[in-house]
Amino acid sequence: MCPYFIQPVPCFHIPASLHRMGHSAAVCNYKASIELTKDWNGIEQVVLRSPQGASARVSLHGGQVISWRNDKGEELLFTSSKAILKSPKAMRGGISICFPQFANCGSTELHGFARNRIWTIEDNPPPLPPNNNPTGKSFIDLLLKPTEEDLKCWPHGFEFRLRVCLASDGNLVLISRIRNINGKAFSFSFAYHTHLSVSDISEVRIEGLETLDYLDNLCQRERFTEQADAITFESEVDRVYVRSPQCVAVLDHEKKRTYVMRKQGLPDTVVWNPWEKKSKTMTDFGDEEYKQMVCVDGAAIEKNISLKPGEEWTGSIELVAVPSSFCTDELHPRLNFF
Ligand SMILES: O=P(O)(O)OC[C@H]1O[C@@H](O)[C@H](O)[C@@H](O)[C@@H]1O
Description:
The chain is mainly β and 338 residues long. The chain contains three helices and 21 strands. It has helices at 16-20, 148-153, 275-279, and strands at 12-13, 25-26, 33-38, 44-49, 55-59, 65-69, 95-98, 120-121, 137-144, 158-167, 172-180, 186-197, 204-207, 213-216, 222-225, 237-241, 247-252, 257-264, 268-273, 293-307, 312-323. The relative contact order is 0.17. The structure holds 6-O-phosphono-beta-D-glucopyranose. Pfam families: Aldose_epim. Keywords: Isomerase.
């Protein structure tokens, strides 16, 4: 059970038909708003706003969250200054969806095809179960179905529903539902590939993963046990912490900011920083940008998720950014979305 809590508040959803008309809607009880804009390629983006001024921007390209700002307008997600915006591939940064595979463990492209496809806005998705229904948020529902090309490399019929929610206090919640609409069972792995913006990676510490086993992607996924009290960074890190707890905290000492990630339905946590040498090999990433980001992904990797025909899986994360002074017992009663 996660010690962190967020108070639930009432809910508001703006119909997609309104977005398509290009309206910016002021939400009566929350004064949250949602806008539809287009990116450099003419692909739609949805901007969610909270009454206090926080915002989140979601691209229909990949269902990728490309920006999350707090009420001071500070960007909380990292985006590379070298991100290739016209690429059919996901932009380097934000939160992208890895499905149906993580990394190169499968028959599709790296981290799966979902992050490279165009999603659609769904007006009336099937309701979420009551215990997983966001309240007090403005939100958008996206849908992905496989293309003919996708079915050639991954021959499984599915519907992938993604809800992105911005709470009135600026917390960000992503809920993924994947349904098997195939005649046969299939299995997949999954991750919310989450690039957090940090002031200096050397000042960052991740709490909640100590003593856990991890698969080290830098050593052919060999299994090790974490010995450190907290994860700190002095070189490249690329690990899958298995059976990790629901909550992980990322402390940025220099910025005096703490991110808390709470996950549900996602047993593993990926931690990635490419460090200096690898950064220089990545064309869409600045040589020094590894200092300003850390990826912490809620994920299901060690064991694939299996779905029989007609079954549905749900995996969610909630992200909170608070001043580090809150990272004491004081923080615990603040977080409780799920
Ligand atoms: O460049 P990509 O495809 O976004 O992947 C970046 C990194 O993503 C991480 O999640 C993986 O653990 C790394 O192995 C990988 O290098």
